[in-house]
Amino acid sequence: MAKLSQEDLLAQFEELTLIELSEFVKAFEEKFDVTAAAAVAAAPAQGGPAAEAEAEQDEFDVILTGAGEKKIQVIKVVRELTSLGLKEAKDLVDGAPKPVLEKVAKEAAEKAAESLKGAGASVEVK
Length: 126
Known about the structure:
rod-shaped; alpha+beta; 3 strands
C-alpha cells in the first residue's frame, strides 16, 4: 500500500459525513489507545478577547438601583463615597438607578456596596 500524503488524507476526510468521521475517530482512538479529548479541551483555553476581558476585569462600577426606606442614610453614604454636595447626592439617590462610583478597584467597589447596603440601599456591582 502506498503511503498517503497529508493532503490526500484530508481530501478523503472531506468526503466523509459527520457520523462517518465520528466513527473513524472512535476507531482511531481504540486502535492507537489515544484520545482526542485533549485537543478539544485546549481550544476553549485560548478564548477570545471577551474571555480575556472577563478574566482581567479590574475596574468596577457601583450602581445604586434603589434607595430603600432609609433614603437619608443612603444620601449620607453617597456623600461619604463621593465628593458630591447634599443636593447632588440627593439627586443621584432620587434618580436611581445611577452609578455612584465608576471604574474603581474591586475592593473599593465591594466596600462601597457594603456601605450602601448597610444604609438600606439596593446596589449592583458591574
